[in-house]
Amino acid sequence: MDAGARILELKTQIAHHDQRYHVLDNPEISDASYDALLRELKSLELQHPEFASPDSPTQRVGARPATKFLRVTRRQQMLSLGNCFNGDELAEFDRRVRKSLGAQSPRYVCEPKMDGLAVELVFEGGSFVQGSTRGDGTVGEDVTQNLKTLRSLPLRLHGSNIPRYLEVRGEVFLKKTDFQKMNEGLLASGQEPFVNPRNSAAGSLRQLNPAITAARPLSLFVYEVGALDGRTFASHEEKLRALSRWGLPVNPWRTGAVDLLAIERAYRELLAERASLPYEIDGLVVKVDASAHREILGRASKNPRWAIAYKFPPEEVEALVEDILVSVGRTGAVTPVVALRPVFVGGVTISRATLHNEDELRRKDLRIGDWVFVRRAGDVIPEVVKVIASRRTGLERPFVFPAICPVCESPIAREEGAVVAYCTNRRCPAQRSGLLRHFASRGGMDIEGLGDRLCQLLTDSGLVNAPSDLYKLSVAQLSSLERMGDKSAANVVAAIEGSKRIPLNRLIYALGIPEVGEATAKSLAEKFRDLEPFRCATTAILQEIPDIGPEMAKAICDYWERSENQELIDALIAAGITPEPPRPATGILSGKTIVLTGTLAGMSRDAAKAAIERCGGKIAGSVSKKTSFVIAGSDAGAKLQKARTLGVPILSEEAFLEIIGGSESPAN
Ligand code: IVH
Q: What does each C-alpha distance from 118 to 220, 222, 247, 565 come to in angstroms?
C-alpha cells in the first residue's frame, strides 16, 4: 500500500476510535494500540508532507502556541437563555409560547443545561475550520487550535447531507471524575487546584498553549446549530439526530414534553439524576421543537423566545464560618468540621461542612470568621471549596488542631506520613455511638427509630456498649431514657427484633469494617455466603475477589485479629441474628443488563425498573457493547441510535411485557 493510501486509512481508523472512545464511551482498542496508530500516522506525514492536512488527527496536539487569541466575528449571534426558577415562571413562558403560536400547540424538548463553557464550531465542506468561545455573542475568541485537541470533536464530519457551511453550538466541560483527577495532579505538582469543573473547563480551553489544553481531559456536547448553508431541519430532534449521525457528540439525555406537567416531570427526573450524572448541570433547558414554531416565536434582544432554562437550586454559595470543631467518627478518625451560619444550598439549608483532614484545613488556610464558598453536590456532605480572601477583615482566628479527643480526652495521634489523626481510645464513647449509628443505618441493619440522638443516649447511659447489646434492650430500659415514650420504646424494640433476619451483605456492611462499603460487603457475601469462612479468611483468599486489593484485604484481616470484633460476632449470633446468604440469581432476566429509553405507554419507568429487577435483570443508564438489550418506548432518542450502531438487540414495550408478563404470572 502506498503512503497516501495508508495515511487515509489511518486517519479513518483513528477518527473511528476517537468516536468509540469519546462519543460512544466504548473503546474497541487499548490506549497503547491507539497511540501506535497515531505515531505511525505522524511519522508517515513527516516523511510525506504532501499528504499532511489540517484535519488530520495529528493536528490535535502540540500545535504552535498562539500569542493571543484572535477575534472571531460570527455570522449569527450566539444568544443566551432566559431563566426561570419555579413552576409559575415556567407557566408564564409556556403561556407566551402558546399565545404566539395561536391555534398550534408546541411540542417541547427538554435537555440538561450543561454547566460548562459555550463554544461555536464551524465546519466547511464537513471539515472543522474554526472554533470560538462565546465572547459577547457576536465577537468571540478564536480557540480553534485548542478545540482541535478535544478527542470528542471530529475534525471531519461523516455521513450524508452535510451542509456546505455549518455552525454548531455546544458546551465544553469536564466530567466530574476528570475534574477530580486533574485537580489531584495539579496538587501533586504543587499547583493551585481549580474550584469547580466549569472554571477548570474554561481555564483549560483558554490556554495560549494548546499543548496544555491537550493535557486536560475536556469533553464536548453539541446542542444547537447557528448559520448553515445547504440544508434545513424541521425540528430540534431532527437536528440533534443529524448532528449525532455526522459524528458530533450529542447528550443522550433528552425527553419530549407536550405540556407543563410533562416538563415538570422531566425537571424532577433530571434533578433526581443530577448527582449520578458524570457531568455537572445547573438546570433543564426547555426548547420548542418545531423549527416553524421557533420562527414564529423569534427572539428578544438577547434570548430566543422559543427556549428557557429552568434552573436548579445552586450548589455553591457563600457562607460565614462561625466556628471550627472536630468530630470523632466510628473508626476514631478525628476530622475537622466547619460550623456555618445556616445557608440555603443545593435545595437544603446547611449549617455544617466537612474538611477531610487537618492538611486540607491548612492548605485552604481556613480561619474562624472567614467567608467561604460552600458546595453541595447531590447527596454528598457539603464541603468548603475556598476561602474568599477579599472578604477578610483581619479579625479571623486560626484554628488549632486539638491534641486530645474532645469527647473522651484521650490523646489524639497522627502517625508519621498519615493524613488522618485518630483518637487513641478504643472505648471512646464517640466511636461507640458512631459505630452504633452505622450499625443501625439504612444500608446496615436498617433499624427504624434508632437515629443519631438515640444512639448517643444509649451509649452515654451505658445501656449499649457494643451493637450486640441492642438485642438485650427492654421496653422499660428504653422508655427510661430522656424524651422516650412507651410507644416509641416498644416500636424501637420491635424494629431491633425485626432486624435479626438480615441479608449477609447488610450485616457485613453494618459491622463497620474499615474500607468495607456496601458494594464490597456484597462481593464478600457472595464469595463467603456465611460469616464463618469470612471471619477466618486470609488476605490471599480475600484478594481472590476482583474488587479487593492488598490494602483492603489487610484492613479486613486486621479487623478480625482484634478479639473484640470476634466477640461481637459471637454475641450477635448468640442474640439470634441469622444472616441469609445471597440468593443465586434465577429470574428470567438474570445476568442480563438492560437499558430503558423513551416513554413507555403502559408503565412508569420506576415500575419497569422494579419489574426488571424482580426478574433478576440489571438496569444500566447507557448503552454499551455489554448491554443485553434496549427497551425502546416512544420518543426514544440517542440510546436507541447507539443500540443500532452497536448492534444491541432492541425490544418494543410489547415484547418486553410479554417476557416479564410470562415470568411474573402467579404460576411462576
Ligand atoms: S441552547 C439560544 N442548550 O446555557 C439558545 N444552551 O444561558 C442557545 N447551555 O450560553 C443555547 N446547556 O452555554 C442550550 N442544552 C443546552 C445548554 C445550553 C448549557 C448554556 C449555553 C448558553 C447558556 C445560556
A: 10, 9, 19, 55
Interval 327-333 mean pLDDT:
91
181 is catalytic: no
Cα of 70 from ligand 1 centre, angstroms: 23
Distance, CA 283 to ligand 1 centroid (Å)? 10
Residue type, 627: T
pLDDT tens track for 457-505: 999 999 999 999 999 999 999 999 988 889 999 999 999 999 999 999 9
C-alpha cell at 363: 492548605
Task: Render pLDDT for 137-151 as a digit per residue (tens, 0 to 9).
Answer: 888 899 999 999 999
Q: 476 exposed, middle or buried (CB, 10 Å; 0-12, 13-18, 19+)?
A: exposed
Residue range 81-101: average pLDDT? Answer: 95
Category of 394 on φ-ψ map: left (φ > 0), alpha (ψ -120 to 50) or beta: left
pLDDT of residue 649: 87
| Contact of 374 with 343, CB cutoff 8 Å | yes
Instruction: Provide the whole-model pTM.
Output: 0.57
The mean pLDDT value for 389-411 works out to: 93
Task: Name the catalytic one among 113, 175, 239, 642.
Answer: 113
Please name every residue paired with 423 in a beta bridge, in sequence order, or none if there are none.
412
Nearest to 442 by CA among 499, 513, 491: 499
Q: Where are the alpha helices (DSSP H) in 499-616?
A: 504-510, 518-528, 531-535, 539-542, 550-561, 563-574, 605-614
Q: Which amino acid residue places its CA nearest to atom 14 of ligand 1?
A: 223
pLDDT digits (tens, 9 = 90+) for 115-124: 999 999 999 9
Residue 67 Cα distances to 63, 206, 437, angstroms? 12, 12, 58
Residue 377 scores a pLDDT above 70: no
Q: Rounded CA gap, 321 and 351, in Å?
A: 9
Q: What is the rounded CA–CA span in Å between residue 123 and residue 448?
A: 60
Q: What are phi and psi of 443, to 5 degrees?
A: -75, -15
**Higher-pLDDT residue of 172, 593:** 172
Taking CB atoms and a 6 Å cutoff, what residues make up the pocket around ligand 1? 79-81, 111, 113-114, 118, 134, 171, 223-224, 285, 304, 307, 309
For residues 7 and 51, what is the distance between their CA atoms, to the nearest angstrom? Answer: 8
